[in-house]
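Progress narrative, work stream C.
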Amino acid sequence: MDDLERGLFADISSLPVIDTHEHLPFAESDRPSDVDVLREYLGHYLSADLVSAGMRPADLERVKDTGLPLAGRWDMVEPFWEACRFTGYARALDIAARGIYGIDGIRRGTIAALDAAFRASLAPGHYRRVLKDLCGIETSLLDGFTGRFEADPGLFRRMWHPAYYLVPRPGKARGIPWVEGILGRPVRSLDDWLEGFDRELEEAVASGIAGLKCALAYERSLAFASVPVSEARGAFTAAIAAWDRAGRAPDAATPLPLPAQDFVMHHQLRRAGERGLACQFHTGLQEGNGNLLANSDPMLLNPLFLAHPGVRFDLFHIGWPFTEVATALCKNFPNVFMDMCWAHIISPVAARRALSGFLDALPFTKISAFGGDYLFVDGVYGHLQMARENVARVLAEKVREGTFGREQALAVARAVFHDNPTRIFGLGPGQ
């Protein structure tokens, strides 16, 4: 970085941050304790790059086995780690090792010392040190995989992920028996099903959720048709009949037909609009290895934007690699916003190009600059440092071009890191 970029980076690093998306445990006490640095750091993101580089999934699982010696596990992973070292995922971890533990990157000569420092961090207080003291994060919007609406209020605001009303998950959490527990009676009709959602939504709102989250692009297309109620009721009745034939067993697979799924999505959005709740949508690259990328094209959401103009839609991950499409949608619709969560580690250079384009095409009030999107807290630190550097470099470029001056650059930075997500998700005082 040159002097202008370094100065902007320093000033940006002092700004408060709203983190728009995390998958962390809802409280530090829920953090796994039976981990070491390889098990935790390879539990998310870099693991996908290692497999992409040719590592066998079975070998990856062995590397994460804390019952095996650390040195031998490093021998297994090292060739693939080195092949991935320059990806955004790996760079974030090197930054975390330096910034959190004072260790100069992750490699053979540092892995033992890093593991010892990491294990010491399992003592209480690490979450607050990383998220508050080192990162300056005011609050993180948590899409948790544990609990329901629980969250440490000093660190998080919970998002609600009601995908199970479209794709019930028998054998896991939240199948049809779950909704029957909400209702206190059997589910016999689509109207019963929607009543279950409405009741749970009221509970979610009372608990303080900041909005809804949809990640169904991992499982189906984001094309949600407008379905007549008669068709949706017939499709739902067929699903309940199939469950009856399976003896109403809790583990019986009872997928809702697509017409019922689509109808429920429109119902959820109507209710969100009535309650003033923003809705986050996963668009673009799916995490992991292997999926139908076309399912996550943000263009597929265009009919929803038209049908629900009163709902604030937050498009995750800059829609990468469909970023230009996502930009056009955000430009065209007052109720559609751009979220750079995950983007800075997917591809740092792609995130910089995208942000430069956003500032050319969009009101800067529509952009949220950061969401760590991590399962483990150290990754949040590394990702945020990369996001701050990216924003500093892009804003410096705009200053050099004469688009705006340094003072305006800092105003834009404050907006994208803090003020915009505060407004979009209703996080202000008393909200």
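Work stream C, second folded protein:
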Amino acid sequence: MTNSLVPPAGPQRVLALAQLSNSVGDGAYYVTAALYFTHVVGLDPARVGLGLTVGWAVGSVVGVPLGRLADRRGARGTAVLLALATGLAVASFLVVRDFAPFVLAACAYASAQSGLAAARQALLAGLVSAGERTGLLAHLQATLNAGLAVGAGLGGLALHAGTRAAYLGVFAVDAVSFVVCAGLLLRLPSVAPRVPVEKLHGSGVLRDRPYAVITLLNTVLLLRMPLLSLGIPLWIAERTAAPTWLVSALFVLNTGAVMVFQVRMARGVTGLASATRAVRRSGWVMLAACAVFALSAGASPWVAGGALVVGAVLQVVAEMGQSAGSWQLSFDLAPAERVGEYQGFFGTGVTVARTLGPLVLTTLLVEWGTPGWLLLGGATLVASYAMGPATRRAAGRASEPAAGRAVLVA
């Protein structure tokens, strides 16, 4: 694996550029969407939240058949069409004025995004050897964070301007970013369909219980996702004496660490055994992070701030280890001819974590305090250890061979 933060030339670099293009647009969208829909469109905040929740719920369901479509019709063509569909869905937000059209646009956006993620994973699997996938995914994660940071800066300019034109400009940039993404994906070699016609009517991922268990455990581990955007900001404001500006500093720390160290953290993850070890280690580190975060309650501002910084460092180390391990497992345990379908299913864990995470974290951290932190860390540790037996069971399925399943899991 290269030591550079830039992936090798060829398909890997093109995939990274495609990731960068749409992540810049997404970063701008994420920081402005809520205020645009409420202040510019005039929707009630509760209805905005409901519409986005419905959209992502639909998207999580649609991701599996769209991933199957990538397997059946070809990953590159499917990814290009879904990138264009995502750009069109973003553009439709520009003309939304009422709740019902907003929900339809949100469903279209989330569905296209979920399908695009699955199709791109299938495309990656077809163009990159199994031994290089986790390393490339680490590069893509670092690229994603860089793009989101740049996009967030652009969105910040729109928020500062506060005008309708500025908000519309952000959505236009996001829409164009997906068109650019589609153009970059067209530069990649085509990947032939991988599902024989006689296999298309099989039970697929929805009947694959061992893989479903892996996905469920990974969903538990992904409950850390809303920590920086919701859990820690609320914790700082409600339970500590630390200054609120620390929220921004911790976000920058997390984003910068992933950009610089994610590739290095993923370097030792090359198979099922190393992947489960990485996930198990991340469980212990996450437990330590939760315990340190809990120490910030009731302390002086300086002590609380120090504890929060240490906890954030531990949390991002756990995040990078868990990400590298889960990427490897999600590919190695999927049948080679159904990568898109399986990646679409595995990706539902992100949607579920984003949907349920705010409620879970608000209850655990804000209402329960220190016991809630310890419960979150304990649940993460249990799920990380359960990943080993679950992986052994999934790897032992003789009837559905997949790359890497013959590897013994520690």
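Residues 398-410 have pLDDT under 50 and may be disordered. No further action is required on this item.
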